[in-house]
Write a structure and sequence with these properties.
This protein has 252 residues and is mainly alpha-helical. It is 62% helix and 0% strand.
């Protein structure tokens, strides 16, 4: 840590910042397969959204600040620099969020208005199916949730894309840190009764998800009326996912 200039607070992902700098000093990490730790999910969907914003905004902002530092680094090979910039940062921390949201939630729905445009099946079915299968191989007990997981990930891609934009452009919320609320056994023991008070209907509504859901639903209805192949089946499901999220029915 000392050789890598220690802990820096220039982004909201200080641990990733340190890990990248240590890697650029030539150190290698060992992944321990047999090491397990307890993990707790965010207690509310709003807390989960804030967490995902931080996890997408922070890496994008770190990418912006470290690109030249990586290029001018003299301790690692050109191949290692290329891997860190292209694969680790650009593809995994930036491109994947943009591709998921804009392609599956904007381009694919909009294509129903242009029947002369043909989107190949490999991009809409084969590749997503393979990715989903690979993800569920580690947890086969959750295989029955794979369709719901895909739809939910597309919804979250909107928040991750927004966070990535803010990180790249250093927008107003770039250094926002909202502690992820995790109640643990407090609900079971009734220790935090004030925390779990039900919110009003209007407080639960998330306008961004609702607007995207309305757009996708409109595309689906247009596809049904004009007989546009099979896309409307997917669009109805995706619109439903946005509405469930937008109207706050994901739960605690």
């Amino acid at each position: 840590m000392d050789a890598a200039e220690g802990w820096k607070s220039r982004t909201t992902v200080e641990d990733m910042d340190l890990a990248v700098r240590v890697g650029l000093h030539g150190w290698k990490f060992v992944y321990l397969n047999d090491l397990t730790v307890r993990n707790e999910l965010p207690s509310k969907f709003k807390a989960y959204r804030f967490q995902q914003h931080r996890w997408s905004c922070g890496p994008a902002n770190l990418f912006r600040k470290m690109t030249m530092e990586i290029i001018y680094n003299k301790r690692v090979s050109i191949w290692k620099k290329f891997y860190v910039i292209y694969s680790f940062f650009f593809v995994r921390k930036v491109a994947v969020h943009f591709l998921t949201f804009f392609f599956y939630c904007i381009i694919v729905p909009t294509s129903v208005f242009f029947p002369e445009i043909h989107i190949p099946l490999w991009s809409t079915i084969y590749v997503p199916s393979m990715i989903s299968i690979f993800h569920t191989m580690a947890t086969p007990r959750s295989f029955y949730l794979v369709i719901i997981w895909i739809l939910f990930e597309n919804v979250m891609a909107m928040h991750r894309t927004k966070g990535t934009w803010i990180g790249l452009l250093e927008g107003g919320r770039v250094n926002e840190w909202v502690v992820t609320e995790k109640l643990g056994d407090a609900l079971k023991n009734k220790l935090l009764s004030k925390v779990v008070q039900k919110k009003s209907y209007y407080e639960r509504v998330n306008s961004k998800e609702v607007m995207v859901g309305i757009y996708i639903l409109g595309c689906a209805l247009y596809g049904v009326i004009n007989g546009h192949t099979w896309l409307h089946f997917y669009l109805f499901l995706q619109a439903t996912a946005f509405f469930v999220s937008g109207f706050g029915y994901i739960g605690t």
